[in-house]
Amino acid sequence: MKLVTLVNIILNRPNDFGGFQSSISNGFLKERKATVIVQGDQPGDILEKVKELALQHGGNENQINSLVVSTPFSSRDGMIHFKEGNDFFHGIQYGNDYAVCDVYSALEIDGRYFRLQEVDINS
């Protein structure tokens, strides 16, 4: 049994950083999801996994390297958002973030993971 940090990553546009051909919808959702183990819970640690996942799904390396933290003020603890650093890629502006990540602690027991949640017994 050991304590690990897990991240649920949702890529909203894994292979679409603008450009006419890539932004035409074929009717299929472009969203990709993955849960991965990370070494730390800091945005830089999470960003590396987001970049790896985006590259696996056809993202452009130069454009993926422009991702910056964009977590909204109203987000709950453990949520980290990333958006394109340049607001416009080929004249396209998106209304949602490129990646939304839910970061949390979990116990790993025999290859299974159990999410931990703090319980306040003092109130």
Task: Produce a short descriptive summary.
The protein has 2 helices and 6 strands, in the order E-E-H-H-E-E-E-E. The protein has 123 residues and is α+β, with helices and mostly antiparallel strands. Strands 1, 2, 3, 4, 5 and 6 form a 6-stranded antiparallel β-sheet that branches.
Can you walk me through this structure?
This protein has one domain. It has 2 helices and 6 strands. The protein is an alpha+beta fold and 123 residues long. It is 15% helix and 33% strand. A hairpin with a 2-residue loop joins β5 and β6 (112-115). It has helices at residues 43-56, 61-64; strands spanning 2-11, 32-38, 67-69, 79-84, 99-109, 112-115. The relative contact order is 0.26. Strands 1, 2, 3, 4, 5 and 6 form a 6-stranded antiparallel β-sheet that branches.
In this structure, how is the largest beta sheet organized? 6 strands, antiparallel
Poorly predicted sequence stretches spanning 5 or more consecutive residues: 17-23
Distance between the termini: 30 Å
Question: Kindly state the mean pLDDT as a whole number?
Answer: 82
Count of helical segments? 2
Oligomer: single chain
User: How many independent structural domains?
Assistant: 1
Shape: globular
Keywords:
123 residues; 6 strands; 6-stranded antiparallel β-sheet; alpha+beta; 2 helices; globular
Topology diagram in text:
Blueprint: E1 2-11, E2 32-38, H1 43-56, H2 61-64, E3 67-69, E4 79-84, E5 99-109, E6 112-115
Antiparallel strand pairs: 1-2, 1-5, 3-4, 4-5, 5-6
